[in-house]
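Quick one:
INPUT:
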């Protein structure tokens, strides 16, 4: 107990002597781990959006109309038999094992949906129901099986085209994953800077107290007694920086994602501060482990005991 109290007193003394360097370590650790926290939040959000959108991923089977291209619909507009054949496949045929549910959208319903979503468009006044294709909108048990369903209906009689939202979603997710990667790269660079700064701080502290450590060696102090305060100094600065990063991560999740973006984009379920509590212990652990390693290796090299 006395040893621990002694090392803590020495740590506080060293912190007072190196206020500027310790503050630098705290700030660099704070910035670097905030990037780590932001990247983790972004990846959590991407995973949540992926799950939400995959649950609602539709495969749309568009049927031929009178105005369909000859190459896509060589037999002309879809017939009643062809329509019933597609529906039969969805209910009891080859596609039924993949289908969770489906709905039929008539030309009139398609026109109504088009006008609702494009009421300000210049085309809205010139489009009528005959221009809109009938379609079957299909939800799958496993969204990843959409290529199988697409292949089943792509060449079916009366089908003009089969479309799904996967390509659009993949583009969105690739952008979000790219942003996550950029944040992680910046975080990695900043963490390296933080480790080097911790090492430099400990080295300068050891140099400024070389006379004291020399005396301690002469009176028989153990290696851990001499090195301990320097390691504590590095860990203290890094952990304080990580706690600030935890606060910033919580604020990003609560105010940026949980409140502001939720209001701006109501159709997407955003994460909130509850998700940040999973990330925060990891930030503290990263800071503590890196600080212990950097401090211990530095005192072993520059503090001969």
């Amino acid at each position: 107990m006395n040893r621990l109290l002694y090392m803590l007193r020495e740590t506080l003394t060293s912190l007072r002597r190196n206020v500027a360097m310790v503050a630098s370590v705290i700030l660099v650790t704070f910035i670097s781990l905030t990037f780590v926290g932001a990247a983790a939040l972004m990846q959590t959000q991407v995973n949540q959006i992926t799950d939400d959108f995959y649950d609602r991923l539709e495969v749309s089977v568009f049927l031929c109309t009178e105005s369909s291209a000859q190459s896509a619909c060589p037999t002309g507009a879809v017939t009643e038999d062809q329509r019933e054949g597609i529906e039969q496949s969805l209910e009891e045929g080859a596609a039924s094992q993949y289908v969770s549910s489906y709905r039929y959208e008539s030309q009139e319903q398609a026109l109504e949906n088009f006008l609702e979503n494009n009421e300000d468009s210049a085309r809205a006044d010139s489009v009528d129901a005959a221009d809109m294709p009938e379609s079957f909108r299909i939800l799958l048990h496993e969204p990843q099986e959409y290529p199988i369903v697409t292949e089943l209906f792509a060449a079916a009689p009366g089908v003009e085209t089969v479309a799904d939202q996967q390509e659009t979603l993949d583009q969105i997710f690739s952008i979000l994953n790219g942003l996550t990667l950029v944040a992680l790269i910046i975080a990695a660079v900043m963490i390296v800077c933080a480790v080097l700064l911790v090492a430099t701080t400990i080295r300068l502290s050891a140099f400024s107290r070389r006379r004291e450590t020399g005396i301690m060696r002469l009176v028989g102090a153990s290696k851990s007694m001499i090195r301990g305060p320097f390691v504590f100094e590095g860990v203290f600065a890094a952990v304080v920086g990580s706690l600030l990063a935890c606060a910033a991560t919580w604020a990003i999740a609560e105010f940026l994602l949980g409140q502001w973006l939720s209001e701006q984009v109501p159709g997407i379920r955003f994460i909130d501060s509850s998700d940040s509590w999973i990330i925060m212990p990891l930030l503290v652990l990263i800071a503590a482990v890196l600080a212990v390693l950097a401090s211990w290796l530095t005192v072993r090299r520059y503090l001969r005991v």
